[in-house]
Design goal:
single chain; 386 residues; alpha/beta; Rossmann fold; 2 domains; six-stranded parallel β-sheet; four-stranded parallel β-sheet; 14 helices
């Protein structure tokens, strides 16, 4: 998201610097092999990587904070991505001390369901550290209205801004179907259902597996592709894979693992339906990606992009229950022509609302309004994602 927005902002004349660390995951992965503490040019913006130290597990960097302390005032605005992370918490605190206006994007961390994870610790952390950061923010960046409505604010009253996420699919001519070494069967009359996301308890995979088993009982034919992984919780990933392999849909299922780049886009385009029955999802970027290549979606009403999907008839909406999900999959697969029509609607919706150039223009307007409110002389409206 940060790279996509930064490139689009740069294209429209904004000077953007991304500050980040060389961390490359939580467990076991080596740090990124990148030059440290020097600007690197990327698609019109610059990235500066800092050594992740001394708390690698929590993405901390004294070097990054030191740079921000000395150079932050060269910028008009900081756009900080994530809460409940020591580096972003410290960066927001530093911005307050240096009187640099900043926007906080929670990434779903203020959702009541997300706050239940490590609840006691987050309550202390939120009240002591994030509450003053939220209160001091120029704005809180939510990606959907529903995310803004449900999010915990710790009693603060900073204004909310709603800016969706965008996608940049490759040209459709580059996505012509080609054989994927995932599904052995080649019967094009059998619909392909796709789950493509992190394998995480919040994604509702146990609902989906049970719903597909229900469909199998009544004689439905389908291919199911399970694409994704979770290096942060490998035990849960193995639990889900074992559940699939022991289920009645095992012979109809292909396990794709983690996919990215061209393979991801091919999967999205060649699927007949993307299914994401999450218990909560502040936006659901894979939903926008699927729609961008003309694939309709079936999502729960806790994937907060759902009102737009429903209004545009770009897919189907279910509740977070096995029965509702089973019924909606049946409805979706009942009429191939309706699948095609909703796929066309999905592509239209994505092109109108979820392209980075349009979102960047809206973001720049928001930046200017916030800076005017703070009576800052506008040197060059600048985003500094952390």
């Amino acid at each position: 998201m940060v790279r996509g927005l930064s490139a689009a902002l740069a294209e429209q004349g904004v000077y953007v610097t991304i500050l980040t660390t060389n961390s490359n995951g939580d467990f076991g992965q080596l740090p990124l092999s990148v030059p440290l503490a020097q600007p690197l040019e990327e698609q019109g913006y610059e990235v500066i990587y800092f050594n992740c130290s001394p708390f690698r597990r929590y993405k901390f960097s004294l070097g990054l904070l030191n740079w921000l302390w000395h150079h932050g005032q060269d910028y008009d605005l900081a756009h900080i991505h994530a809460l409940f992370s020591p580096i972003s918490t410290a960066a927001a605190t530093l911005c307050r001390l240096r009187k640099l206006p900043y926007i906080l994007r929670p990434l779903g961390t203020l959702d009541p369901l997300d706050l239940r994870k490590k609840q006691a610790l987050k309550k202390i952390y939120g009240n002591l550290l994030e509450r003053p950061n939220l209160q001091g923010a120029a704005a809180i960046h939510f990606t959907t209205q529903q995310e803004a409505d449900v999010s915990e604010r710790y009693g603060t009253n900073s204004p909310a801004i709603i800016l969706p996420l965008g996608v940049t699919p490759p040209s459709l001519s580059d996505l012509e179907p080609f054989p994927l070494p995932i599904i052995e069967a080649t019967d094009n009359q059998i619909p392909t259902l796709l789950f493509l996301s992190r394998i995480d308890p919040k994604k509702g995979l146990e609902l989906l597996i049970s719903a597909l088993e229900n469909l199998k009982k009544v004689g439905a034919n389908f291919h199911f592709i399970l694409a994704g992984s979770n290096p942060q919780d490998p035990d849960y990933e193995q639990q889900i894979l074992a559940q699939v392999q022991a289920s009645t849909i095992a012979t109809d299922t292909a396990i794709a693992g983690f996919v990215e780049g061209e393979a991801k886009w091919h999967l999205l385009k060649q699927a007949d339906l993307l299914i994401l029955p999450s218990y909560y999802e502040n936006f659901g970027i894979v939903v926008a990606e699927a729609m961008a290549v003309g694939t309709p979606v079936l999502i729960s009403d806790q994937v907060y992009i759902w009102p737009a999907v429903k209004a545009a008839e770009a897919g189907w909406i279910c509740s977070c229950s096995i029965q509702s999900l089973t019924e909606q999959i049946q409805v979706a697969l009942k009429d191939p022509q309706e699948l095609k029509r909703r796929g066309q609607n999905a592509q239209r919706l994505a092109s109108e609302q979820y392209t980075w150039p349009a979102i960047a223009a809206q973001t720049i307007t928001t930046y200017h309004a916030l800076l005017q409110k703070f009576h800052q002389p506008e040197k060059n409206c600048t985003e500094v994602p952390i």
